[in-house]
Design a protein that fits this description.
The chain is built from four helices and three strands. It starts with a strand and ends with a helix.
Length: 106
């Protein structure tokens, strides 16, 4: 009943909330028996970065991806700038599934 989740590490840059450490995903998978998830929404804090970082996490071997979504991100009481809307979530979920399936066959 435990998963590990990469949510970013604090750094001194000012263009994203945290640095999304994709390299830790395969390292954690090699060192533990636990599933490893990634949360690019929290790590980057910017919806414009979430999709690419989610795909990077899948490519690195993540067992799952947590994505923040909201019906109207601009009206969200918190974290709207990192939230996907419904169409974005549907599209990204499809892309992530396709990438996962492709990588599973290689």
């Amino acid at each position: 009943s435990v998963i590990l989740c990469e949510r970013g590490i604090r750094t001194f840059n000012d263009y994203q909330r945290h640095t999304f450490d994709v390299a830790i995903i395969p390292e954690l998978k090699a060192r533990t028996h636990l599933p490893v998830f990634a949360d690019p929404s929290h790590a980057t804090g910017k919806v414009s970065m979430v999709g690419e970082m989610a795909k990077a996490a899948v490519a690195a071997g993540a067992d799952g991806v947590m994505l923040e979504a909201h019906v109207e991100p601009k009206r969200a009481l918190s974290d709207g700038e990192q939230s996907l809307d419904g169409a974005m979530l549907t599209s990204l979920a499809s892309q992530v599934r396709q990438l996962h399936e492709f990588l599973a066959t290689t």
